[in-house]
Amino acid sequence: MLSEEENIKNYLGSVIRTIPDFPKPGIQFKDITTLLSDKKALQLTTQALCKPYYESDCDIIVGLESRGFLFGTNMAEVLNASFVPVRKPGKLPSETLSETYELEYGTDSVEIHSDAIKKGDRVIIHDDLIATGGTALAASNLVERLGGVIIGYSFIIELGFLKGREKLNHKTIESVLIM
Ligand code: AMP
User: Fold this and answer.
1) Domain count, the chain
2) Is residue 144 part of a domain?
3) 140 lines ligand 1 (CB under 6 A)
4) Is 113 a domain residue?
5) Does ligand 1 lie within 6 Å of residue 173's CB atom?
6) Most-buried pick from 19, 45, 92, 140 (CB within 10 A)?
């Protein structure tokens, strides 16, 4: 018999839709809009994301644009933390810090408000999905440049075959589903 946790994971896995060849050939896009539109799945996902961190004494959830904003704010509310967005270049209105990272072809950047994190703040980095880990690593560099302490990472989906967790090299990397 499956445990309650396994049943929840199977259910969440069943409401995530995979779209082949989106946004370009060869990518199996994990579409969470179908999870968001299921009210039970919405609650279960927030609970599953927060569960490893109830005792973590976290100050800030850093959510990565854009799907990391959806559950990042829910997590912040449940864990009694605040929420800080990491965004694509040019979106944040006040003074920012920027970090550039390598893509398969070319580079990309992410930004954070320079005053969003104070020295010693305890931070969880959250996104909907970790693929190669490049985006999460760039975000963690921003947090550390501002003096934040990364206590862990949190993802709904981990594409295990891309080994993104090796890039992050942190003892606490929590994924609800490994696909
Ligand atoms: P990476 O930096 O390679 O770990 O890519 C992670 C970011 O790209 C996240 O913000 C994801 O939302 C998005 N992403 C990458 N691959 C996929 C995929 N197969 N399906 C959905 N989103 C993806």
Assistant:
1) 1
2) yes
3) no
4) yes
5) no
6) 45
Residue 104 a catalytic site member: yes
Q: Which domain holds residue 99?
A: 55-178
Q: How far apart are the first and last CA of the chain?
A: 22
Nearest CA to ligand 1 atom 17: 29
Q: Whose CA is nearest to atom 12 of ligand 1?
A: 129
Q: 97 alpha carbon to ligand 1 midpoint, in Å? A: 22
Taking only Cα atoms into account, the Rg of the chain, rounded to an integer number of angstroms, comes to 16
* Paired tokens of 92: 């944040």
Q: What is the largest CA-CA distance in the chain?
A: 54
The per-residue pLDDT string of the chain (179 residues; one tens digit each, 9 = 90 and over) reads 899 999 999 999 999 999 999 999 999 999 999 999 999 999 999 999 999 999 999 999 999 999 999 999 999 999 999 999 999 999 999 999 999 998 878 899 999 999 999 999 999 999 999 999 999 999 999 999 999 999 999 999 999 999 999 999 999 999 999 99
CATH code for position 78: 3.40.50.2020
Q: List the structure tokens of 2.
A: 């499956």
